[in-house]
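Worked example

This section walks through a single chain of length 135. The input is the sequence exactly as stored; nothing has been trimmed or padded.
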Amino acid sequence: MTDTTVPPIDVAVGILMKPNGDVLLGQRPEGKPYAGYWEFPGGKVDPGETVLDALKREFVEELGIEIVSAEEWCGVEHVYEHAHVRLHFFISREWRGEPQSLEGQAFAWQGTVGVEPLLPATIPLLEWLDRLRYA
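Given that input, the structure is written out below as tokens.
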């Protein structure tokens, strides 16, 4: 059982979006909670770091790409068995480089999202995202 009296962990999450609306999803590597589940890439915000700085750092570390610009999209709190997280979602349509698997994780560009299982906090966002992508 997660202790909800502990403040949530801030996590920066990035949605890379191609001009055609395709988005990048990554698969959580072995050894992490929810290994094998698909999610939007990102990671914990370090003390003294802004959410956007954390996002940029995580994308360099995990995927070897540089976020040129990103707009804040939405925030979601989710209580998992292992952690209470506050997810800060950004959408980026502008980056340098091609994603690489620097942590041994699988990733896939998705139009209609067909990979599964999806991380529980990701599922409700897909409907909102489709409204944005295909408006």
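What to look for: Residues 107 and 129 are 18 Å apart (CA to CA).
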